[in-house]
């Protein structure tokens, strides 16, 4: 059975500055299967974040195609892309981007509420996933009342509460000390196993990358083992 959920074909991205052209990605072919745990490493400026944005439909390629559930991102309207992202994908960034005026449970419930889920069900699901990652006693705390590691765990819970098929994490532990980073990473891997959610992580931390099933390096516009 084919478990492929996202794939790209001859994916390229260039940026133009006057007469100069910078080729960031060059004809990349790549696929993601359900439950995959893949780390993407590479030097700063190699295009790792750009690659994630293209796979998640947040940016448009210069050439090539990205397919999700058999749909070409390029053929969809912005409204259709937003709907598909909200249903199937989760995103975690180096900065947590939590809404400061809302509690942890309210922040985590937000994606479900935006999708039309009832408040009661949304908060139940948010409470469940926050409890899974050790934050049952922090449900009503606002971001300013949480530690850096706790805020990042709330961000991870928010990305996974709607049980997406794939989560893209861009330097999710970049602002954390090594011990806290490992704890946060352990929770990400645990949720990956629980929901069979594919996990694609961009990281500079080779020690964390080595805990994934596959490590790919992006260098000179190409992706290699």
Structure description:
This protein has 225 residues and is α/β, with parallel strands linked by helices. Helices cover 35% and strands 28% of the residues. Helix 3 (104-114) packs parallel to helix 5 and helix 5 packs parallel to helix 6.
What fraction of the residues are assigned to beta strands by DSSP? 25-35%
- Just give the CATH class: Alpha Beta
Q: Whole-number average pLDDT?
A: 87
The third-level CATH topology is: Rossmann fold
Low-confidence stretches: none
The span between the termini is 25 Å
Q: What portion of residues is helical?
A: 25-40%
Strand segment tally: 10
Overall SS class: alpha/beta
Number of domains: 1
Helix and strand pattern:
EEEHEEHEHHHEHEHEE
Strand order of the largest sheet: 6-7-8-3-9-10
The dominant shape is: globular
The major β-sheet equals: 6 strands, mixed
Give the name of the CATH architecture. Answer: 3-Layer(aba) Sandwich
Structure in a nutshell:
This protein is an alpha/beta fold and about 220 residues long. The chain has helices at about 50-55, 80-90, 105-115, 120-130, 150-160, 180-195, 205-210; strands at about 5-15, 20-35, 35-40, 65-70, 70, 90, 165-170, 200, 215-220, 220-225. The chain has a single domain, classed as Rossmann fold (3-Layer(aba) Sandwich), CATH 3.40.50.300.
């Amino acid at each position: 059975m084919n478990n492929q959920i996202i794939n790209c074909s001859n994916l390229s991205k260039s940026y133009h500055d006057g007469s100069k052209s910078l080729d960031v990605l060059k004809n990349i072919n790549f696929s993601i299967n359900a439950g995959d745990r893949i780390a993407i490493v590479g030097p700063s400026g190699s295009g790792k974040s750009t690659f994630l944005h293209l796979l998640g439909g947040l940016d448009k390629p210069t050439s090539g195609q990205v397919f999700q559930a058999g749909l070409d991102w390029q053929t969809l309207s912005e409204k259709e892309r937003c709907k598909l992202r909200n249903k199937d994908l989760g995103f975690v960034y180096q900065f947590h981007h939590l809404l400061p005026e809302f509690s942890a449970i309210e922040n985590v419930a937000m994606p479900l509420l935006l999708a039309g889920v009832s408040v009661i069900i949304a908060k139940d699901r948010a409470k469940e996933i926050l409890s899974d990652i050790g934050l049952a006693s922090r449900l009503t705390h606002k971001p300013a009342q949480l530690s850096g590691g706790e805020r990042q765990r709330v961000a991870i819970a928010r990305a996974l509460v709607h049980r997406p098929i794939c989560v893209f994490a861009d330097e999710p532990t970049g602002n954390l000390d090594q011990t806290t980073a490992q704890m946060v990473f352990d929770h990400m891997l645990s949720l990956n196993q629980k929901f069979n959610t594919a996990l694609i992580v961009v990281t500079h931390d080779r020690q964390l990358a080595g805990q994934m099933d596959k490590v790919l390096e992006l260098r000179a516009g190409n992706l290699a083992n």
